[in-house]
Amino acid sequence: MGWATALKKTARAGLTVERARLEPLLALRGACGVAVVIGLLLALATPSLAVSSAFGAFASGIVTFQRSWRPRPLLALGVAAGLGVSTFIGYLAAAHHALFVVLLAAWTLLSGFAWALGPVSGFVATQTIAVMLVTVTLPSSVAGAAEHAALIVFGGVVQAALILLFPIRPWGRQRDVLADALAAEADYARRLRHDPVAPFDPQPLMEAREAAVLTPRQARTRPRQLGGPRGVAERIRPVLASLADPVLGAPAEGPERDQVRDLLAAAATVLDAVARAIRWGKPVRLPPEAVATLQEAESGWRLTGPARRSALRLAALLGDAVEASDEPVRATGPVPEAERRHLLRPTGAGLLPVAWRALRREARWSSPVGRHAVRVAVVSCAAYVLGSALPLGHGYWAPMTSVMVMRPDFAQTFQRGVARFAGTLVGVWAGAGLMALFHPGPWVSAGLAVSTVALQYLLMRTGYIVVSTCVGAYIVFLLGIAGEGWSQTLQDRLALTLLGGALAMVAYALWPTWETPRLRDRLADWLAANGQYALAVLDAYARPADRAARRVREVLLDARAARREWEDAAARAQQEPVRHRGISRKAEREAEAALTTMGRVTMLMEAHLPDRGAEPSAGAGRFAAALREALPPAEAAVRERRVLDWSGPRAALAEWRVREGDEGVPVRASELLVDALQELAQALAPGGRGRRRSSRRP
Length: 698
Known about the structure:
- This protein is an all-alpha fold.
- It folds into three domains: 22-169 and 367-510, no CATH class; 172-221 and 223-331, no CATH class; 517-683.
- It has 28 helices and no strands.
- It has helices at 3-14, 24-44, 47-63, 72-94, 97-113, 119-135, 142-165, 172-194, 203-212, 216-221, 229-244, 255-280, 288-295, 305-325, 337-340, 351-362, 368-389, 397-405, 410-438, 442-458, 464-481, 486-510, 519-542, 549-574, 585-606, 618-640, 647-660, 665-683.
């Protein structure tokens, strides 16, 4: 799309206010933390100290609303410590203009690289820059700077203490994510009743796994109810798909299909009941009809072959899910050994080598995170110099806007730039209007600031324009505590907000990091990950005695991660004003469908993995060897826009059919796998694509 269309879409997205689930108790607790800090400092110290400490409490409260699975008190303390350090060293350099610019460049560069660790780390690092720019204008001595830094840390300590003293629905986020994953599988079972090859988005299962990664302290206190159902849910999904599939499961029509529909409906009911029990920490309540249907899976069912095996396994897995989620809610215990090896989150000290490896990985010109770090450092310094040179006062507002707006991708940067200016315009006008009409004193200004904070926490997830509006009004009220006139606030902040946002957007336009040219690389990565998943499953058929469930699990997670990276990249590319995509939109959709089908077929094979004592399949071994040989050239062909060659796997499959017949699950699934690979080749063929050979949807 062109620049005009892209800007229109990003502006509309930035100004959108979304409906979101509100959490009033959490918002009230966070606002109380800000109120306690401001009230204590106003009563016992000076307004300037109250303003300084309020920044720490405010930022610590914001971070506790971010999507992180670490304990909320640790998040509050961590961001407060970072804010305190940035404030203190910022003041030490503030007396020397050139030295402060150098410090700002170095700090913003490191904060830009923090995005390599994840969005929460990037957001926290951005907060430290913003507070550094604001609070260095407050102290008047080194001792005063240390005092202000300590008070900022005190604000985080207050927020952490409130979280510990007044816990609101402990483990609530983990419960919601696990319940959402089970509810998504329930919805999947219902859709399979009408569409036997319905697609399934693995995102809820991926989020449930992320939520299951624990710190050592969390591992000692996690409720047992959250420990088992996730693993069962992972095993249920392929069984549901294999039961409903018309090729590897029950026939498309007839009595067996009717019984499969009944079983899928009962499975959906049970999964919904388990999801409700986990979400609210209550025992599982199962409808009698669903229980009766599942009991019939063990006696009286007319299903045969793979469909019967899938039905029996589904009934057993659903029983395991109910039993795992029906544990005493308050009982806690250590993490099982199998999970302790893989699902422990590193401690603060353990994050240092992780951060160092991420920094080294992203320290290159081709990295989006690396380019973002350089871009935000240059823009923040330029905004600071320009803001200080202009005769407006409050020059820090321009660089603060720039660092708060800029993100590693085009869409978010431009969306936040538009939302930031519009929200600041509304918030500053509203705040300044109230200050002009009522001329409130310090205590009333503090009350208005706390009320604005509560509103922001409550509406945090409704859109960045709402957040920007609340921040604009909050800053006006907060600085009103220190006696700063509203007339000085209005025009200065609006002009500097426009300057900072404009610099951020111009910088991205001049030195962009487009996702569009890398789409083929993302597609090749997904093909490679799917290929390793298929090879691990085929190897289990070829050598059942050597089958390692952990290996299949690891490559499945890699395939899911590659799919998510592709989907995120494709979504970002759709919003970029780049005409040369390297791949047409139609080819992109068809290639995505082919790789999704490839993953689905592999999952169906996984649902019927043989026991360790089963007879090895020589045909599966030869087919796996041919696929292993064909994958690296195919990945290179996707990246380099060449023809994909799957003749080797096709020949091995034909030989497999001749030697062992085509009635077994692995043979029929491998045929579908080759069809999906051929569809991928046709979608990406240079100079045009043939008709798709299979009408099966992913």
